[in-house]
From TrEMBL:
Keywords: Isomerase. CDD domains: RPI_A. It catalyses: aldehydo-D-ribose 5-phosphate = D-ribulose 5-phosphate. This is Ribose-5-phosphate isomerase. The lineage of its organism: Eukaryota, Fungi, Fungi incertae sedis, Zoopagomycota, Kickxellomycotina. One of its GO terms (cellular component) is cytoplasm. GO terms for biological process: D-ribose metabolic process; pentose-phosphate shunt, non-oxidative branch.
Length: 257
């Protein structure tokens, strides 16, 4: 099997395992994440729906335009946060998950809604292939931390982020401890797929990919970036996930909690 197919099989296994374990008949409100691994979760949900193994009242809350389409196409019932502010469980993908289940998300530029939905959920379960399982954030995922920014402020925010110093910008950091590996962040405005200007999120904003090297203190980095005026959301999800499922190359899946 090609390595691409191994990765897709691994994603599918992680997604199927998480849905089978967690989306039982007593789940009434389900948050649905975004990305290519979530497509497999939706496939499993569709199968369970057709077998009558889901709650007849199940409502799915999307985290992006993509996830909305997946829910509708699968024949699942679409809901919104206004009517369903208490979500039983959310299943979502991740770009990287560290040993404490902190995660980087936003590879698909959907991390604002993903974080809102995760925060409204009693439980957040992550699904990914083996390449995303890390000891430390930034080790495997070298594209950087996605930071959604309002277009009006993007130049000002770029400057503020570039000026952050890994040792003196962070509460509790000392001369001997750095919140992240690089001395200063490297900030890249994410281009649109057709390269004609920056990518624009579902919320009409831009996204920076902020390269920091290894992230030693995810919670502090998340907070410091989020505090910059003009930043809408940061793709570090610290202390949010309860469990992460990873599909492996050998056709099995394992879970960390
Ligand atoms: C989108 C996300 C995705 O969940 C994350 O990028 C993982 O995507 P994939 O399952 O395609 O690897 O955070 O904003």
């Amino acid at each position: 099997m090609s390595s691409k197919n191994l990765v897709e099989t691994a994603k599918e296994l992680a997604a199927f395992s998480a849905v089978e374990k967690h989306v039982t008949k007593d789940i009434r409100v389900l948050g649905v994440g975004s990305g290519s691994t979530v497509v497999y979760a939706i496939n499993k949900l569709k199968e369970l729906l057709e077998k009558g193994q889901l709650s007849p009242d199940l409502v799915c809350i999307p985290t992006s335009f993509q996830s909305r389409g997946l829910i509708v196409d699968a024949g699942l019932r679409l809901g919104d946060l206004d009517e369903n502010p208490d979500i039983d469980i959310t299943i979502d993908g991740a770009d990287e998950v560290d040993s404490k289940l902190n995660a980087i998300k936003g590879g698909g530029a959907a991390h604002l809604r993903e974080k809102v939905v995760a925060s409204a959920s009693k439980r957040l379960i992550l699904i990914a292939d083996y390449r995303k399982d890390s000891a430390v954030l930034g080790e495997q995922w070298t594209k950087g931390v996605p930071v959604e920014v309002t277009p009006f402020a993007y130049k000002a925010v770029e400057r503020k982020i570039t000026e952050l110093h890994h040792k003196n910008s962070f509460q509790g950091a000392s001369a001997s401890s750095a919140a992240f590996e690089f001395t200063n962040p490297v900030v890249i405005l994410r281009p649109a797929v057709n390269k004609a200007g920056p990518v624009v999120t579902d919320n009409g904003n831009f996204v920076f990919d902020v390269k920091l090297g290894k992230i030693h203190d995810p919670a502090s980095v998340e907070t410091v970036l989020k505090m910059i005026p003009g930043v809408v959301e940061v793709g570090i999800f610290s202390n949010m996930a309860e469990e992460a499922w990873f599909g492996k190359e050998d056709g099995t899946a394992y879970c960390r909690s």
